[in-house]
Amino acid sequence: MIAARLNGPADFAGWRREARRLALAGIQPEAVDWLTSEDDAGLFAMENATPVAGGSTALTVSRRFIELAENVVCHRDAGRFVLLHRLLLRLQDEPRLLENAADADIARAEAMARSVRRDLHKMTAFVRFRAVSGASEDGPFIAWFEPEHFILERAAAFFTARFGTMIWSILTPQGSLHWDGVALQYGPAASKADAPDGDAIEAYWLTYYASIFNPARLKPKAMKSEMPVKYWRNLPEAELIVPLIASAARRAEDMVMRAPTQPPARHVRQLRHRPELPADESAITSWRDAAAAAQRCTRCDLHCHATQTVFGEGPLDARVLFVGEQPGDKEDLAGRPFVGPAGQVFDRAMKEAGLDRARAYVTNAVKHFKFQLRGKRRIHEKPNVGEIKACRFWLDLELQFVKPRFVVALGASALRSLTGHASSLASARDRELALEDGTPLLATVHPSFLLRLPDEDARSREYARFVADLARVQQRIFRH
Amino acid sequence: MAQLTVLEKLQILSDAAKYDASCASSNTMKRDSRDGKGLGSTTGAGICHSYAPDGRCISLLKILLTNFCSFDCVFCINRSSSNVRRARFSVEEVVALTLNFYRRNYIEGLFLSSGIIRSADYTMAELIRVAETLRRQHGFLGYIHLKLIPGASRDLIERAGLFADRVSINVELPSEAALARFAPEKQASEIKSAMGGLKLKIEAAREERGKSEKAPAFSPAGQSTQMIIGADGASDSAVLKRSAWLYGSFGLKRVYYSAFSPIPDASRQLPLQPPPLMREHRLYQADWLTRFYGFETEEILGRNEMLDLDIDPKLAWALRERGRFPVDVNRADRETLLRVPGLGTRSVDRILTTRRFRRLRLEDVGRLTRSLTTIRHFILAEGWRPGSGLDAQNLRARLMPRPRQLTLFP
């Protein structure tokens, strides 16, 4: 047998050095005794091997193997070094061996790495610090913990990152970590008696643990699979588990069986002070009433899936009122009209035409977003005639309260809503129209039409035409 | 009335908070105190520091600031008509508890909610004060989840997102009609509008931070919501469709389902029965299938309104669609393998890499997965075909878990 000496039970650098030496010497894994501490050395007083001629000359392994090995060396299984040694040799001939998860060696190494990672994770979860008597807020704190594998050094980074500004020690049967707020020191193995046996805050923690438990949902198996019993002895809250389980059935039954009680006086007083609901549709006397009532509109089914009613906005003395089709995805989420991509095109065109968006009233023919849900995307759908008709109620109120001198229909749906009948946008665009009360009506495209044009040339041509339409509006306003 | 001690308040206000199922402390930005400033860290993955006998993880200190409430939501232990004991923490008391728990490694951070007192804005501002004190005065770097108060002003909601890792507002029930019936003071429109505004803020902040790391974070772990299952008459189909809509509309990280649980001093309007825990579990499984396995809600349910309680939804789907099986593990693509009952995303990925080296036999598949019990009936492997078992009428019965006591009241 050949002896390979390591500096500790999870000495990865040492293993790497020795494994390299052994492999280059052509020594087979089964012929090696791995010694992890000085005590072992006495038992196996053997000479190290000298390099053997004819061994492989170069060793290459992937980053992935190093990561796997770093975890596996922490495992408590005494066969870990031999397994890794064997994998190292096999990898020289089978460079893609690691991807073969059905290989017995790989499966075993991966299972060991998983177990180590889990133990590491559980250590970050289950270490419980206790303040040393007379400690300040920042410590010193001491925790006693018993890891399953040799993970102490690997766990250190988590605790220094999290508790970097505290002073603490973590004591284990394998060794100890000491952090003074600046530097980390490793110390010898410790015993439970070296840690404080209590902490005043634990009473609060236990109270919390008992109170957050819902006795009507007893699932001890689920608890144990995530918080294995082997960790319980160092968890202060674990002493509550048995009594909580024992009383759960009775407590749950109590809740079900107990008769309802009379409401307290405070509740009765509160009932008298309920704020009034906003005006309903029949009692609308102002734009504000209309905007509030529209939030609860159920005149068509679109309210079921839209986020909210997107009512028009702008000064109530605006000279011109723009009507779009319906809110889009962004407008639906924001609750405001023309704030999405089409709104940005609209804003730019308005500016180029010499119009100020802030002085116009902007709204839509339909006030709820209509869409098809495809996976996680909402695809815009055109409103139908029924929906346009149902929503005309709100548009009428907006027209009534704003009393614009001009109305502009952006797109066919707006035109449909304002005229009450289907007509071609192309022909309406060149004509002078009017609402029933005589208010002049101009029609142009909806800005989203410009976004949908695939061809760059067509887009800039149509955009220029859109700006020209808006410029006509601007001229009309100034002429009046 | 004698003043309550902090310990008594903690008892009342954690008991009052336990019906909120959400506990996640994951997916936020990474922070640590290595540079000698502040207290705490976030790792991205989140840590469950303990588990209660109800099987739920304890990751955050989940408490209410107060359980006094002016709302009378029928399903809630804290509704104004209930005679539950009431308490109110001061902002400083919550801050001190959070820090003391955190320093002892009990928790990842704070999950703070509240009954509604005085007004939605007043209550929201108090919650924000806790988070702001933790962050600004104490340099707290741990996780903070703030519950948003329905009806709170947009300014306050947007302020909450500056200090919290995650914010959430509960839709409470699968339908707006049920919300109106059971939570008369809550406005569905306010809840939806808040979620819509949050989505825009979260996306805008993420975009800004993509350009510059110095841009302020806004609820970096996103938003979530909770639905109570079993208090109203909604079917699983209605619940899952509502979820799909919530995910699609508001980009939610999670929709939590909370089986309606009996509460002390329950309202007589509610079903007096134990919580439908298995139903809750099946809904989560169905939710997972739509989020990670490429299933559509309609496929999962088939023509049914309710999920099968005895077997998981993927197995139920596969038994309805037997014609699609057996699937050849040596040939099938990822999407097809994900639909095999018993195969999870991890196992599928392992099968895909390993089969590049060898033709997989049944025992190889056994090494790559947790258990072959179910899988074997639905796959072809080298030297393995399921035989006539797949067509057998009793396959469902054979794959059903053995009867066991699922709840306290069988």
Automatic annotation (TrEMBL), chain A:
Keywords: 4Fe-4S, DNA damage, DNA repair, Hydrolase, Iron, Iron-sulfur, Metal-binding. The keyword 4Fe-4S applies. It holds the Pfam family UDG. SUPFAM superfamilies: Uracil-DNA glycosylase-like. Residues 311-471 form the Uracil-DNA glycosylase-like domain. InterPro entries: DNA_repair_put, DUF4130, UDG_Type-4/5, Ura-DNA_glyco_family4, Uracil-DNA_glycosylase-like, Uracil-DNA_glycosylase-like_sf. Belongs to the uracil-DNA glycosylase (UDG) superfamily. Type 4 (UDGa) family. This is Type-4 uracil-DNA glycosylase. It comes from Bosea robiniae. The lineage of its organism: Bacteria, Pseudomonadati, Pseudomonadota, Alphaproteobacteria, Hyphomicrobiales.
From TrEMBL, chain B:
PROSITE patterns: RADICAL_SAM. InterPro entries: Aldolase_TIM, DNA_rSAM_put, Elp3/MiaA/NifB-like_rSAM, Endo/Exo/Phosphatase_dom_1, rSAM, rSAM_sf, RuvA_2-like. Its cofactor is [4Fe-4S] cluster. Gene3D superfamilies: Aldolase class I (3.20.20.70), Photosystem II 12 kDa extrinsic protein (1.10.150.320). Pfam families: Radical_SAM (PF04055). Residues 53-296 form the Radical SAM core domain. Keywords: Iron, Iron-sulfur, Metal-binding, S-adenosyl-L-methionine. This is DNA modification/repair radical SAM protein. It comes from Bosea robiniae.
